[in-house]
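Incident log, support desk, overnight shift.

02:14 A customer reports that sequence design results differ from what the structure should imply. Their input is reproduced verbatim below. On-call engineer (initials T.W.) acknowledged and began investigating.
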């Protein structure tokens, strides 16, 4: 038996998928870090455009390897957003506080050295789910 062409992914397709996926995740992660008040919408965008970029880089192939690439890229994008929030907490002050991180009210999350809310965890799960399902 042969593998279906859709699921036969060569090494060069994996390399392109990693480059496109991580590049797009970094761009969207920067956007998420600059506007934490719009974290849900940016996480939704990340859950759509990162797997699409992985699919574009792999010539629209699918499979568990590409799912792992997309989900790792999404997690990388969220890490990038946390770094951007730490470096630029009020990068655009003229927005009237819309881009400022807010305290969660949960002592465990507020004591972390980086900005994390209970909603961030949910948004990450949403983006990971979307990435997984797109390349299934």
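02:41 Re-run completed on a clean worker. Output:
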């Amino acid at each position: 038996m042969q593998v279906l062409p859709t699921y036969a992914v060569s090494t060069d397709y994996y390399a392109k998928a990693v480059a496109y996926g991580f590049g797009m995740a970094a761009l969207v992660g920067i956007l998420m870090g600059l506007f934490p008040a719009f974290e849900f919408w940016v996480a939704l965008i990340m859950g759509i455009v990162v797997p699409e970029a992985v699919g574009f880089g792999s010539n629209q192939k699918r499979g568990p390897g590409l799912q792992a690439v997309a989900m790792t890229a999404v997690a990388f994008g969220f890490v990038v957003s946390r770094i951007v929030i730490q470096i630029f907490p009020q990068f655009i002050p003229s927005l009237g506080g819309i881009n400022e991180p807010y305290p969660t009210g949960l002592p465990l999350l507020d004591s972390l050295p980086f900005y994390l809310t209970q909603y961030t965890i949910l948004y990450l799960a949403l983006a990971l789910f979307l990435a997984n399902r797109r390349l299934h």
